[in-house]
């Protein structure tokens, strides 16, 4: 049963500085807007529901970071793409800020909007049809990657690139980039999109692709929701393996670990390549492990350990080699996520630090940042360090260092949310780490919690800033979309 807001509940926003009240008439199922009590215009009839109850507003005033809390005035649970169009037009007309929300796994309020409208994309979760032998599938923006994977694998197919965690929405990761262990071979998820269906900030429903409204296409992919709401995406598919072989290869020093990763990335020996750093018993972050995966039939031959591991300088005694079903590999985080939820740690604050370092400076910069890291400041989190290949990363708004082999460096901190002094200190530490990385030509991957101002964003987007700002003016002329990113 959809929850129906009471007659008295109201959406409060700002129209040219004056309070707007939107009241719901349960008899006509329509909404009326008043400015100081005077009717302005009706909120459109919807196929879905517009919620203003405490629970819905409270839920969308939070995210995976549990650090920023901005309370929206209303939440749209759309019953159709038509609802998204109608409510974006409504917000555009009344200059109400709005943000789409996929799974709310941002860590810094990116999908939150104070006093505005949240469009939950979850109901827009259609997938397919997927046809055997097809090279693409069209999905709703709210579909989760876990569901897309299952639907594609049933036909022997798969998207080429996955994030480590699958319970993220397609629209959410396409808005940031979508990086994973396959990125050194196939780029980011945004590099594997054939076409998008979007609702611009002006409320226009458009399809865009590299050849159709290309400026819009390139402003939406990794565009942090600033020009349009993605409502659907046509994603590239490739043949899926049935099984994979998973290798965990320990290293005792950073330099050797990085050199072997770089070798593997450039040779493309493995289909998937990542790496982790952990602390020894004395608390020093000096334990490294390459995580690599070779795909089995029908994509590749049965993995040949000798050929795959030739010349690598890992500590052979600690190596772990495991065969897995393909989906079990993709969904490998599910058991640890269940354990974190069980232990209450999923609800901890996550002041995440996600940076991209130029390969040439990775040993120095990552080394210095790891030297300064303490187990207490990581908490029950993880440190990731793995290479990407610049030649496969084409989306202009996914900012990468000028280096053929950039490294993703992520300190996925987890800390009690009630200790706000520590959270603040970690946010400051993130900022200072970002500045060190920026000074050597690195950047941030904007899914974490690095305090960022307008001037930082201009610098972040650098040579593409002007085009991005122009696209924002064209497609969201009233500047209502996704204020939580703090870009414009
Ligand atoms: C446990 C975990 C693991 C992760 N692993 C990875 C990883 O391996 N690789 C990686 O690249 N990232 C990873 N991330 C980061 C993740 O990709 C981003 O935070 C992503 O934006 C989250 O998707 P979401 O559906 O929760 O989006 P939300 O948090 O709901 O939204 C994120 C931003 O995108 C905007 N947005 C959402 N939907 C749309 C839409 N349809 N149209 C336009 N804008 C939209 C929102 O307004 C907001 O600004 C991880 C995050 C978590 C919490």
UniProtKB/TrEMBL annotation:
<dbReference type="InterPro" id="IPR006093">
    <property type="entry name" value="Oxy_OxRdtase_FAD_BS"/>
</dbReference>
<feature type="domain" description="FAD-binding PCMH-type">
    <location>
        <begin position="68"/>
        <end position="240"/>
    </location>
</feature>
<dbReference type="InterPro" id="IPR016164">
    <property type="entry name" value="FAD-linked_Oxase-like_C"/>
</dbReference>
<dbReference type="InterPro" id="IPR016167">
    <property type="entry name" value="FAD-bd_PCMH_sub1"/>
</dbReference>
<dbReference type="InterPro" id="IPR016170">
    <property type="entry name" value="Cytok_DH_C_sf"/>
</dbReference>
<dbReference type="GO" id="GO:0009690">
    <property type="term" value="P:cytokinin metabolic process"/>
</dbReference>
<dbReference type="InterPro" id="IPR050432">
    <property type="entry name" value="FAD-linked_Oxidoreductases_BP"/>
</dbReference>
<keyword id="KW-0274">FAD</keyword>
<dbReference type="Pfam" id="PF09265">
    <property type="entry name" value="Cytokin-bind"/>
</dbReference>
<dbReference type="InterPro" id="IPR036318">
    <property type="entry name" value="FAD-bd_PCMH-like_sf"/>
</dbReference>
<protein>
    <submittedName>
        <fullName>FAD-binding protein</fullName>
    </submittedName>
</protein>
<dbReference type="Pfam" id="PF01565">
    <property type="entry name" value="FAD_binding_4"/>
</dbReference>
<dbReference type="GO" id="GO:0071949">
    <property type="term" value="F:FAD binding"/>
</dbReference>
<keyword id="KW-0560">Oxidoreductase</keyword>
<dbReference type="InterPro" id="IPR016166">
    <property type="entry name" value="FAD-bd_PCMH"/>
</dbReference>
<dbReference type="InterPro" id="IPR015345">
    <property type="entry name" value="Cytokinin_DH_FAD/cytokin-bd"/>
</dbReference>
<dbReference type="InterPro" id="IPR016169">
    <property type="entry name" value="FAD-bd_PCMH_sub2"/>
</dbReference>
<dbReference type="InterPro" id="IPR006311">
    <property type="entry name" value="TAT_signal"/>
</dbReference>
<comment type="similarity">
    <text>Belongs to the oxygen-dependent FAD-linked oxidoreductase family.</text>
</comment>
<dbReference type="GO" id="GO:0019139">
    <property type="term" value="F:cytokinin dehydrogenase activity"/>
</dbReference>
<keyword id="KW-0285">Flavoprotein</keyword>
<dbReference type="InterPro" id="IPR006094">
    <property type="entry name" value="Oxid_FAD_bind_N"/>
</dbReference>
């Amino acid at each position: 049963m959809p929850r129906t807001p009471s007659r008295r509940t109201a959406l409060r926003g700002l129209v040219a500085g004056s309070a707007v009240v939107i009241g719901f008439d349960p008899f006509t199922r329509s909404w009326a807007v008043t400015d100081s009590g005077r009717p302005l215009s009706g909120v459109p009839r919807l196929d879905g529901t517009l919620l203003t109850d405490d629970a819905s507003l409270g839920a969308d005033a939070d995210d995976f970071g549990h650090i920023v809390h901005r309370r929206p005035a209303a939440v749209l649970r759309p019953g159709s793409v038509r609802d998204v169009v109608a409510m974006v037009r409504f917000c555009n007309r009344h200059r109400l800020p709005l943000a789409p929300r996929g799974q709310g796994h941002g860590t810094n309020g990116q999908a939150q909007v104070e006093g505005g409208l949240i469009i939950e994309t979850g109901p827009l979760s259609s997938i397919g049809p997927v046809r055997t032998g097809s090279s693409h599938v069209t999905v709703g923006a709210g579909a989760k990657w876990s569901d897309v994977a299952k639907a594609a694998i049933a036909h022997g197919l798969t998207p080429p690139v996955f994030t480590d965690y699958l319970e993220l929405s397609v629209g959410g990761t396409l808005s940031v980039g979508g990086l994973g262990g396959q990125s050194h071979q196939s780029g980011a998820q945004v590099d594997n999109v054939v076409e998008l269906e979007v609702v611009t900030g002006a409320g226009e429903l458009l399809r865009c692709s590299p050849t159709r409204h290309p400026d819009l296409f390139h402003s939406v992919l990794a565009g942090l929701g600033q020009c349009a709401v993605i409502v659907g995406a046509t994603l590239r598919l490739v043949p899926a393996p049935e099984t994979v072989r998973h290798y965990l290869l320990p290293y005792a020093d950073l330099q050797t670990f990085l050199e072997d990763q770089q070798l593997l990335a450039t040779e493309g020996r493995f289909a998937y390549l990542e790496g982790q750093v952990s602390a020894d018993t004395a608390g020093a972050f000096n334990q490294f492990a390459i995580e690599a995966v070779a795909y089995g039939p029908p994509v590749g031959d049965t993995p040949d350990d000798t050929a795959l591991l030739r010349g690598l300088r890992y500590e052979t005694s600690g190596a772990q080699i495991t065969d897995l079903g393909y989906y079990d590999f993709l969904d490998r985080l599910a058991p640890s996520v269940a354990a974190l939820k069980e232990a209450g740690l999923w609800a901890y604050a996550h002041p995440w630090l996600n940076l991209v370092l130029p390969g040439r400076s990775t040993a120095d910069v990552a080394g210095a940042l790891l030297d300064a890291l303490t187990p207490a400041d990581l908490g029950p989190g993880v440190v990731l360090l793995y290479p990407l290949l610049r030649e496969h990363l084409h989306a202009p708004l996914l900012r990468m260092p000028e280096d053929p082999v950039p490294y993703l460096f992520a300190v996925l901190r987890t800390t009690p949310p009630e200790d706000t002094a520590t959270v603040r200190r970690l946010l400051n530490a993130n900022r200072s780490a970002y500045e060190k990385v920026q000074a050597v030509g690195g950047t941030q991957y904007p899914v974490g919690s690095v305090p960022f101002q307008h001037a930082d964003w201009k610098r972040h987007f650098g040579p593409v800033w002007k085009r991005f700002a122009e696209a924002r003016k064209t497609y969201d002329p009233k500047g209502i979309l996704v204020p939580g990113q703090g870009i414009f």
